[in-house]
Amino acid sequence: xxxxxxxxxxxxxxxxxxxxxxxxxxxxxxxxxxxxxxxxxxxxxxxxxxxxxxxxxxxxxxxxxxxxxxxxxxxxxxxxxxxxxxxxxxxx
Length: 92
Known about the structure:
Blueprint: H1 28-44, H2 59-65, H3 76-82
């Protein structure tokens, strides 16, 4: 369950956010749009070569990154229950 303060946005989440903190309050579409925007910006400034682009990890890539082996027919909820010790308050 996602909890969000009424009227909160990614820019004004309703709690202190520093310049080096991860972004909060964005959905998948927002994150995809940011990847596209950043790719265009860095192509234009020649920071990133034209054949490269930013993207979000696949489910399998994310699972491996957080220490879960690839498991066929496992739902995201089932996988989430197997991630331990990530947050002091649990996985959600």
